[in-house]
Automatic annotation (TrEMBL):
SUPFAM superfamilies in the record: HAD-like
EC number: 3.1.3.-
Protein's UniProt name: Acid sugar phosphatase
Family annotation (Pfam families): Hydrolase_6, Hydrolase_like
Signal peptide: none
Cross-referenced PANTHER family: 4-NITROPHENYLPHOSPHATASE-RELATED, D-GLYCEROL 3-PHOSPHATE PHOSPHATASE
Keyword tags: Hydrolase
Enzyme class: hydrolase
Entry annotated with the keyword Hydrolase: yes
GO molecular function: hydrolase activity
Amino acid sequence: MRPYATMHSLPASLLTSYAAILCDLDGCLISGDHVYPGVHEFAALNGERLWIVSNNSSDTAATLSLRLAALDLAIAPERIVLAGEQAVRRLAAERPSAKVAIHAEPPIQALAEELGLVESAHLPEWVLLARDTRLNLPRLAAVLAQIEAGAALFVTNLDTAHPDPEGLPVPETGALLAALRACKTDLSFRSIGKPAPDLIEIALGRAGAVPGEAVFIGDNVTTDGEAARVAGVDFIHLRSSHLALSRLPLGEEKPAVLDGARRAAC
């Protein structure tokens, strides 16, 4: 079966048997404030079956839901599972009132404060690294100093980039992590984002679905496909939607739907 370039080219019949449809965000549904072809129809058709599962580490579910509403995509916060928010929630549940150095955008910082984490740049117990557009070289040096002083590192996700509307890479949290690892080669950390299965498992729990009843739609076999494989759900490889915008060739075809046995090859 050929890969699918956009949601518009994804047959609705392919999804009819699933109780829960989990979908990546950037590169599949939107890029910035651009909605990819067929996405409005896809969201309207699948309604309450649709769950966003994304390595986005700049938004919370609430802020992303508002941003999507402005693009005429009505997806409730309860059906949005994001790496940045879930990292904060996991940390707050495991280490309540912990001192944390938070390197993230304002929505993530506000959520951490709301959940009782104590933001502290001086001798923190944890360093939380998310996508932070203000993280320049002096601030990277501060992160390294905090880690050297004994803070444990929690990285929201490992994605190095996501595509803009023209298909050009936008640096992500993984790019910041790569800079840290270039300076400290023995860096240890934990992460909740894909390719770990945590976000998918959270979405399945909210949906009340078992893995065999769900499918994951993503544009990145390395992160989306691997997370689906580990979680035990079917995976549909949506070839990056920006191809339809920049009119790049699709290239060599790959299988679009991977069952449990074939997913292991991803």
